[in-house]
Each structure stands twice: as C-alpha cells, then as structure tokens.
Amino acid sequence: MVSVDEACAETGTAGRPDRRALLVEAARELFTERAYDEVTTSEIAKRAGVAYGLIAHHFTNKRGLYLATVNTAADRLRAVHEAPPTGDTPAAMLREGILRHIAFVEENVEGYFALMHGGSGSDPEVRAIIEDFRWTAATRLMRMLGVQEPFRPVLRTAMHGWSGFMTESLIDYLRNSDLPREDLATLVVRALIATLRAAHAIDAGIGISPRLIDELAS
C-alpha cells in the first residue's frame, strides 16, 4: 500500500499535496494498527501533517474517513482484477487471475486485513462495500466464462459461497504462512470447479457446460 510519505508525492491543484489523499493514507495506517474506537481524528490529522479541520471538510467525521479508507482499499484491489487476463485457455486465465490476486494481497497484507475485517463489523455501509467488491469479482469471473447476469439462483448462491471460501482461505494463508502460493491457487481453483459442478448438477441451465468446467480442471 502507499504510505503517507509516498502520498505526499501526489499533487493536487497547482502542485499542492493532495491533503485528502494524505488523510486517507494516514487513517488507513492507524486503523490497521489499532481498533477503530482507539483511533482519534486528531492523531489522524497529525500523522497526515494537515490541519484538523480538513477531516470535517472532506469526510464530515471519523466514520466518513473510515468509509473512505475501506473504499480506497477496495478500489486498489479491484484494479488488479480489472487488468486483462493472460493465458490462451480458460484454465490458464483463471489460474493467472487467482495468482495475481494472491500476489497483490501478499504485498498489501495490512491493507487487505483492514479491508476484509471491516466487512465483519456492524456498520451496514462498510459491509455493503465489502460485499459489493467480492460480488463484483465473482461476476467478472463468470463473465470471463461466458455467463451474464442475472445468474440462475443456484449459481448466484454457489458463487457467493465460493467467494467466501476464497477470502477465508487467503486469510488463513496470510496468518500462517505455511502453504506455498501455488498450492493455495490450486486449492481455490479446484474449489471453484467443484462448486460449478455441484451447481450444474442441480441446474443444468446455469450457462456453464460440463465441457467448460472440465477445461478449467485441465
């Protein structure tokens, strides 16, 4: 993730530092280090090196600033997913996308934990940001396989379940650091294949043929 010092290099109007970006980065660092309730707006402003009143100007209050940090983290990870996939087969594109996701998260562990842990709280807006991010990633994968929304109910339910499996598997991987990255990618891919096969067995009209599912396993 970008540090506060690095954010200073970003410029706003007339070459001045982007003070909003400085506040978001300072808040992200502090919310990662400590629980939300333990972080004060005054120390956020101090770490960002900007006037305290700019928090109210840009975000209204601490909660608004927190939502901005969650949105920023989601946008950065979303950009990784939106990069065109490589590979000349569905299986190669799928695996490359999963490995790219894992690699990005490994390089941004604290930000990823802050993002995903934000979705487990009681704030409905934070949960909505996380759920939207996860579902957008799942729908992008389905489009890569030729399936367009609206998804059949069993496929929608199955993909929500797989998305949760991938998130929790990645969190365990990051916490324990005892599983090779390639093995994690294989686990996630095989879980998707099993999920799609189960969904197809219930409803053959989900839009993904058994042949395509087999190709993903090749």
UniProtKB/TrEMBL annotation:
Give a yes or no for keyword Transmembrane in this entry: no
Q: Supply the InterPro entries for this chain.
A: DesT_TetR_C, Homeodomain-like_sf, HTH-type_TetR-like_transc_reg, HTH_TetR
User: Could you confirm whether the keyword Lyase appears in this record?
Assistant: no
Source organism superkingdom: Bacteria
Q: List residues of the HTH tetR-type domain.
A: 17-77
* Record field: transmembrane: none
Which residues mediate DNA binding here? 40-59
Alphabetized, the UniProt keywords read: DNA-binding, Transcription, Transcription regulation
List the PANTHER family. Answer: HTH-TYPE TRANSCRIPTIONAL REGULATOR RUTR, TRANSCRIPTIONAL REGULATORY PROTEIN (PROBABLY TETR-FAMILY)-RELATED
Supply the name of the protein.
HTH tetR-type domain-containing protein
